[in-house]
Specification:
The chain is about 35% helix and about 25% strand. The protein has about 400 residues and is of the alpha/beta class. It folds into 2 domains: about 5-190, Flavin prenyltransferase-like (Rossmann fold); about 195-410, Rossmann fold, CATH 3.40.50. The mean pLDDT is about 90. It binds cytidine-5'-monophosphate. Cytidine-5'-monophosphate (C5P) binds near residues 310 and 312.
Length: about 400
């Protein structure tokens, strides 16, 4: 069981939506209150069909908030105040309907309005029939909400109230308590608070003419995950991103650019910074004198494209000087002799660390969710097991945080 010390004195706003698992939310209220958490509850109309407002009121020892239009509640406790006076919003059970309304940004009842109006972290505990959970619509809604920073616990797999088997059961009350405690423990662990970070991510597009460009296959997944992981540890992050399909990660300032030269300018504008992580796959060359009109097939054969070298952003940021970030991290995507090439690259670019990976066809690294990397520092190489790009990002952010803690100790 997780350490629950972080829970005492915290304020949770619990949204109970209409699912059979709502009965477990009564138990959740008790377990939270035992640990010193103040729980205030919002009950949806459907939720009130599964548990009575009286039970919720008795367990929270507070009014149960149900009506967006109630004049008394609005004057005494408007939806803005409900979220302002909470440290965390927990939605349990989070039904398919409420997840869909959250994803769409609807505000058609008190629960949805509070969830739209809040700037507080939100944890959802989905609960629904297995096919509703597995439906592409629910999966897309959940993925969208998670990309916006919504946290999730469960659902678990097992026999459901409807006698079907599969994922969809709401996490047990104590699992939700553990997730809430984990959130508060992590939220207070912000070792990079006060540090500024620049992260580059994605490909660059180098125009040939107004409609054509040279690009590469970078998805931006690894760079975006690193920006989010540094922000989670408290850093003030500017993410400079080339064109990707990814949503902007929560908690970061994002500058969208297209070309390598725009990426360099955006990085320089974000200085000074303590940390720079260059995870972008910057095009090495651009078309010299790109045409400002669409090139035509005029029967004279294909145009000759003259290429010229792009600025090296990593090498530029690594250059010694007042504005050099204290820690500069580069990436080396190689297709053989990974460690030898990456070690040489670290010296050539002048950066402090290199994260090296094998991107040979078949490794699935480009565009895939997993990555197998080696962290090369002045004092040697650490090889990490294959893990999700999010996990690589968390581990790298942790290593960055440890680096600054050690540097401070050494002073
Ligand atoms: O030279 P190469 O592209 O192999 O180096 C990869 C590393 O250098 C990555 O960290 C990449 O983000 C960075 N880079 C850069 N600007 C360039 C080329 C590469 O920042 N023009």
């Amino acid at each position: 069981m997780a350490d629950h010390a972080s829970l005492a004195g915290k304020r949770v706003l619990l949204v109970i939506a209409g699912g059979i698992a709502a009965y477990k939310s009564l138990e959740l209220i008790r377990r939270l209150r035992e640990r010193g958490v103040t729980v205030r509850a919002v009950l949806t109309e459907a939720g009130a069909r599964f548990v009575t407002p009286l039970s919720v009121q008795a367990l929270t020892e507070d009014t149960v908030y149900r009506d967006l239009w109630s004049l008394t509640d609005e004057s005494e406790m408007g939806h803005i105040r409900l979220s302002r006076e909470a440290d965390l919003l927990v939605v349990a059970p989070a039904t398919a309907n409420l997840l869909a309304r959250m994803a769409a940004g609807m505000a058609d009842d008190l629960a949805a309005t509070v969830l739209l109006a809040t700037d507080k972290p939100v944890l959802v505990a989905p609960a629904m029939n297995v096919r509703m959970w597995q439906h592409a619509a629910t999966q897309a809604n959940m993925a969208l909400l998670e990309s916006r920073g919504v946290l999730r616990v469960g659902p678990n797999e097992g026999v459901m109230a409807c006698n079907e088997y599969g994922p969809g059961r709401m996490a047990e009350p104590m699992e939700i308590v553990d997730a809430i405690a984990g959130f508060f423990a992590q939220a207070s662990h912000r070792p990079l608070a006060g540090r500024r970070a620049i992260v580059t991510s994605g490909p660059t597009h180098e125009p040939i003419d107004p409609v054509r460009y040279i690009a590469n296959r970078s998805s931006g997944k690894q760079g975006h995950a690193i920006a989010a992981a540094l922000a989670t540890l408290g850093a003030e992050v500017t993410l400079v991103s080339g064109p990707t399909r990814l949503p902007d990660p929560a908690g970061c300032r994002v500058t969208h650019i297209e070309t390598a030269r725009e990426m360099l300018a955006a990085c320089e504008a974000a200085l000074p910074a303590d940390i720079a992580v260059c995870a972008a796959a910057v095009a090495d060359w651009r078309v010299d004198g790109a045409s400002d009109r669409k090139l035509k097939k005029d029967g004279g054969g294909p145009p000759a494209l003259a290429l010229t070298e792009n600025p090296d952003i990593l090498a530029t940021l690594s250059r010694p000087g007042d504005r050099r970030p204290a820690l500069v991290v580069g990436f080396a995507a190689e297709t053989g002799d990974v460690l030898a090439y990456a070690t040489a690259k670290r010296a050539r670019k002048g950066c402090d660390w290199i994260v090296a990976n094998d991107v040979s066809p078949g490794t699935g690294t480009f565009g895939g969710s997993d990555n197998t990397v080696h962290l090369i520092r002045a004092d040697g190489v650490e090889s990490w097991p294959t893990m999700a790009k999010d996990a690589v990002a968390s581990r790298l952010a942790q290593a960055v945080a440890e680096h600054f803690t050690e540097t401070l100790k050494a002073k």
